[in-house]
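Morning - zinc ion inputs below, output right after.
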Amino acid sequence: MEQVSKELRDKYIPTIGLEIHMEQNTKTKMFCSCKNDPDAKPNEHTCPVCLGHPGTLPVINKQACYNIVKLGLSLGCDISKVASFDRKNYFYPDLPKAYQITQLFEPFCLNGSLPICLSDDEVKLIELERIHQEEDTGKSLHTNVKTSTLLDYNRAGVPLMELVTKPVLHNGKDVKNFGETLQLLLRTLEISDANMEKGQMRIEVNLSIMEKNLANKGKLGTKVEVKNINSFRAAEKAVEYEINRQIIALENNEKIIQETRGWDDVNEKTVSQRTKEGSADYRYFPDPDLPEIHVHSTDDSLFDLDEIKATLPELPWELRKRLEEEYSLKGIKAVLFLNNKPLLNFFEKVVSELSALSDKPKEEVINISYNYITSTLPGILTKNNLTLEETDLPANHFATLLNYVLKDEISSNSAKKVIEIMMETKKDPEEIINENNLKQVVDMSAIESIVDIVLKNNTKAVEEYRQGKENSIQFLMGMVMKESKGTANPQIVIKMLKDKLS
Ligand SMILES: [Zn+2]
C-alpha cells in the first residue's frame, strides 16, 4: 500500500482507544481451584466448574481480586466499593458454559491514568475508562488435519483483567509506548508475566480518523477494531497501517465500514475479519451464582485500600523520576534499569559503597559505576554465560575495584581481569590485584623523561598543536605510549603533555 504524504496525513486526526487483556499469574483459576499453569499439558488442569458442567458453582478467587485492586490503585483509579460479576452470553467451542463471566455493570476500577514518557522531559497521562475482572476462555488449536480442531481447556477460567482506555491516543508510537509501560507495571506489581507472544497480554486497537476541519463539528469517524496483535512493534505498525489505509479510502470517497480487522504480521497489513456485532448481542445480565463483592470501606469488606497502598512497590514512572533526580540518568540510560531490577539494585549498592570510599565528585562515581555495570560487566557475564545473580558478586568488592580504577592505580584492562577472577574465586579485589601484580607503576619522573624526548623529537606535531590542531596531542600520546611500551597511564600522559605544551 502506498504511503500518504505528510500533508495528507496532517489533514486528519486519528483517535485511538485500547482494550488490553492481561492474564493474571495467580496460583489457581478465577472460579475454581484448578492450577493456573501456562506450561501444562493440554487439558491437564480442568474440573467440572471450568468445563461448565451444569449444577457446578463458581467460587471467587480472592487473590485475583486483590491483584486487580492493586493495579487500579497504582494507576490512580477509583476503586468501586461494590463490585459484581455478569454473564456475557455467546457460543464458542472454547467457551463450554456458552457464557463468559465478566464485569459490565460494577467493575473493580474506574477512571485513572497511565503516564507514558514521550521524551526525556515530556510525560503524557493516558486516561483510562475502566479495568474489570473476567475469566479467560480455552484455546482452539487448528491442526493441519483440515477436518478437526483440538480444544485445550487449561486456559478456561484463568483470571483475566481487561483495561480499557479512553479514546485519547493519536498515533502508533504512543500505543507502543502505552503497552510497554503497562507491561513494566504488571511485572513490577508481579501480577502478570505479561508476555505478548504467549498471549498473556493482548492488545486490541479501536481506531477512527476524521478530517481536522470537521473535528470541531463533532463529526466522528467510523470505528474499526484491530485484533491479533502479538507484539508492541506490531501494535505500532498496525495503527500506522490503519491510519494510512483509512486516509486513502476517504480520499477516494470510499466509506469506512465498521468492522473487526486482524493484523497480518507476515504481510504487515490488516485484513477484514468480520463486521462488528453490537454489545447488545451478548445479552449481559448479573451472574446469579456469584455474590456481589464488598471491596472496601465497609465492616465486611474484603480489603483495606490504605493497607494495599502501603505495600505498592516503586512504580516504573516513580523509578524513572528517581533515576533522573538521584543519578541524572534519563532516556535510554534509565530504560535499561527500568527493565532490569537486579542490575539496578547492584548499581545502587555499588554507587553507595563507592561514594563512601572515594573522595571524587558524585558525578564521577556515578559515571564509572554506570559504565562498568551496564557495559563492562554484561560483556564479561555474556562471555562466561552467567547471570549477575549467579555470580553472587558482592557490591562492596565491585566498589573497591572501581575505586582503584578511579585513582588510576589499575588500568581498565586489569579491572576486567579482576572482575573475572572475582567471579571465579570470590576473593576480594585488593588480594587479586596484589597477587597478580596489576597495580600500574606510576613513576612520574620516568614518564616525564619520555614525554620530554617525544616533544623534542616531534617538533612538527608540537607546532601544529600550538596552532590549534587538537588531534596532534593524540599522536604525541601515542608516541609516549610506544616509548613506554604501554606501561604509562594514558590519563597521566595526556595531562603531562597538556601542561608542558600550554
Ligand atoms: Zn477448574
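Note: The longest strand covers residues 123-135.

O.
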